[in-house]
Amino acid sequence: MDRQQVAEAFEEMADLLEFRGEEPFKVRAYRRGAEAVRRSPEELAVLRGEGRLHELPGIGKALEEKIGELLDRGTFRALEELKRSVPAGMEELLAVPGLGPKTAARLYRELGIKDRAGLAAALEQKRLRDLPGMGERREQQLREALAARERLTSRHPLSETLPLAEALVEEVRRLPGVRQVAVAGSIRRFRDTTGDIDLVAEAADPEAVGRAFAASGRVSRVLALGEVRARVILAEGIQADLWAVAPGGFPAALHHATGSKNHSVRLRSLARQLGLTLNEYGIFRGEESLAVRSEEDIYRHLGLPFIPPELREDSGEIEAALAGQLPELLNPADILGDLHVHTDWSDGQRSVDEMAAAARELGYRYLAICDHSRSLGVAHGLDGERLARQREEIAAVNAAHPEFRLLAGVEVDIRMDGSLDLPDAVLAQLDFVTASIHAGLGADRAIQTRRLVRAMENPHVDAIGHPTGRILGRREPYELDLEEVVAAAARTGTALELNAQLSRLDLSTEHLRLARERGVQVVVNSDAHGVEGLRNMVFGVRSARRGWLGRAQVRNARPWTAD
Ligand code: DGT
Ligand code: CA
Ligand code: CA
Ligand code: ZN
Question: Which helix H or strand E contains 185, and what residues bound it?
């Protein structure tokens, strides 16, 4: 658990206490605790190891113990107990923006509303407006907030389903008789949102595997348990489908369950034209089953080159394959460096030296330190003077490791008018400048577009960081004319970042394809705030593949040259 997650747990606790009408000082204690944790200059695990958690403002003995529990097992007793004492739908209700715990408590007491569906029904029947202090306006606000929330959560962000799917794979792998198991569906295609989790397993007794899966402790409800497929709802409220097949059936089942449906439909009709039948069991000529030892074999029988899962959307890949013009996609090994990481000079957790060592460990040839600029006060943003001091540290690393290049950079804030948070004279001294928007996220389309375009017109800016600002499942992208942004990037020779944090994946697939079409360079960055964060890069590579990107389009798949 990182600081952010511990802070969120404390905030949830505060919300639930407030919902129950507990003493305000208790609520405040958790809110202050959350704030202190979020602002902690050091990693919680480190502070705890040194017995120094209580040095954080507002963290006393009680919260110190709870942080310990959170770090050990991801939750704490008091929170678990409190959750059991409130209606099950309350968490999702409290997640509706603009609906605080006090209002939720009133709605529960006075109208019996205990989940999102209950709120929707009450709004529909106009039952809220008659409560003292509510009114029609407030009703309308809640209606909009609820609609926005539903839109965001009807599909699940990949950041939620991918880790869950990987944990399930490990669990299924341990079931008796399982020979292999893999993630399929939209998660394997690396779509940024997913409807459910699809898994495929091979075992001598597939039905028994389905039954064992359905009986797992992670499952809250079994929807269907058939010969080939088990469909369940997990404790997290997410559906999971497991296809279990007999030995030999794995590649065809994996291919079928990976989809997309549109891609499969096209392949099946291609098969028919060749007098073949393609289905989830294999590929057939009349009664004869053709050999399918891998997914490659399926494409080979159809006279096609292998089409990687990330491309299987029927968005031009079949035509490209038929014409022998599939793009050569980016691979993890192509990445030669990372051009956006943070250190403890701003809101990162590790030193310049530690980040550089971790990058060398990954086999990178270069790394750009891009800490926040000064206006981002909460993140200890850097000014020209601190950047100059940081450069001395960077120079020392470079002197000690001549085979590796540590670049001096910055993630400079873009102000409302598109000017930058640091003077040109300071930017001119840096190797790599990423400019990002972190405030004024709600500005209108014209202003937001103008901000990015102006930033790109600054000759010192090399890349735009997380260009649309989206956080999957939590924050919509800014209002932006992406066409114009891409055009400006092409005109000014500025790269657009593909931020590889799983919760961002910003740019999206569609925008990456647009950038590729217009000849704009993309830089795939981890935006790591610690050593582990460098591993985000693999998510970025898979997203880049979805955008049809190869080495030629990716800035950090080429050796470093200052251009
Ligand atoms: P999702 O879950 O909405 O993010 O998207 P998928 O692609 O994971 O879709 P899902 O879970 O409904 O189905 C998984 C795969 O199963 C899908 O990619 C292809 C296959 N599949 C499902 N329904 C059909 C169908 O009606 N026809 C064919 N050919 N394949 C199907
Ligand atoms: Ca799915
Ligand atoms: Ca499914
Ligand atoms: Zn940023």
Answer: helix 185-188
* Secondary structure class of 192 (helix, strand, coil): coil
pLDDT at residue 5 in the model = 80
Q: What's 528's DSSP letter? A: B
Instruction: Give the number of C-alpha atoms closer than 13 A to the C-alpha of residue 342, restricted to the C-beta side.
Output: 21
Bond from prior residue into 146 cis (ω within 30 degrees of 0): no
Is 484 in contact with 515 (CB distance < 8 Å)? Answer: no
pTM over 0.90: no
Integer Cα distance of 451 and 445 in angstroms:
10
**pLDDT 10s digits, 371-409:** 999 876 666 789 999 999 999 999 999 999 999 999 999
- How many Å apart are CA 436 and CA 275, to the nearest integer? 54
- Can you tell me the distance from the alpha carbon of 395 to that of 380, in angstroms, rounded to the nearest whole number? 22
Q: Count of residues for the chain?
A: 563
Nearest-angstrom CA–CA distance, 335 and 525: 10
Structure tokens at 17: 């206490």
| Shortest-distance Cα residue to atom 3 of ligand 1 | 195
Pairing relationship of beta strands 156-157 and 239-245 according to DSSP bridges: unpaired
- Of all helices (H) and strands (E), which one includes residue 522? strand 522-525
Amino acid at 121: A
In the block, tokens 């058939």 appear at 226
Question: Residue 268 and residue 259: Cα distance in Å, rounded?
Answer: 12
Q: Which tokens in the block code for residue 32?
A: 């202050």
Smallest CA separation from ligand 1 atom 27, residue = 261
pLDDT 10s digits, 70-101: 999 889 999 999 999 998 888 888 888 778 89
The CA 484 to ligand 2 mean position distance, Å, reads 34
Contact assessment for residue 396 and residue 366, using Cβ atoms and an 8 Å cutoff? no
List the residue whose alpha carbon is closest to atom 18 of ligand 1: 259
Determine the distance separating the centroid of ligand 2 and the alpha carbon of 188, expressed in angstroms. Answer: 9
Angle at 346 between CA 375 and CA 561, to 5 degrees: 95
For residue range 498-514, what is the model confidence (pLDDT) as tens digits? 999 999 999 999 999 99
pLDDT-derived band of residue 173, with 50, 70 and 90 as boundaries?
very high
**In order of start, what are the domains of the chain with their CATH numbers?**
3-153 (1.10.150.110), 156-247 (3.30.460.10), 264-322 (3.30.210.10), 332-557 (3.20.20.140)
* pLDDT tier for residue 473 given thresholds of 50, 70 and 90: confident
pLDDT band at residue 233 using 50, 70 and 90 as cut-offs: confident
Measured in Å, residue 459 CA sits from the centre of ligand 1 at 47
